[in-house]
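User: I'm putting together notes for a lab meeting next week and I want to include a structural view of one of the chains we've been expressing. I don't have a solved structure, so I'd like a prediction I can at least talk through. The sequence is below, exactly as it appears in our construct file.
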Amino acid sequence: MLEAVKICKQCLEKLREVKDGIDANIKEIPPGEGHGSHEAPRGEVFHYTRSDGTNRPVRYKVRAPSFMNVPTNYRACVGYTVSDATITLAAIDPCYCCTERTLVVDANNGKRVMGYKDLLRKSQEETHRLMGKYRSRMDKIWI
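Assistant: Thanks for the context. Below is the predicted structure for the 143-residue chain, given as structure tokens.
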């Protein structure tokens, strides 16, 4: 933590040395597309942007590693015990805030079907339904 504070202090000192300041007023972005990827602690992070020549991108997409890693758990966990599923999930060390951008879109017409909050509600409803369905079995196991 002390090293992080030292780094922050160094950054602030370097910013003071900048003569003309930092220009955050973006006048225009050349038209076209660009993409880049970088190795992050949880895997590859990907950025894509498309510009029409104005100062705002037409399309900007970020794909975080956890967004791609979490869905693999369906394949990795089905048929195993709950304790195996938790350790398998922990092995990919997911960042849940990276997965909150989930959006379900109808492939036929491109319209939004449901977003993150809808999926969360649906997941909670399904969990309660399954808990009720298997409650008697679970009670027998814990007795």
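A couple of points you could mention at the meeting. The chain has two domains: 27-95, 102-143. The chain has a mean pLDDT of 80.

User: Perfect, that's what I needed.
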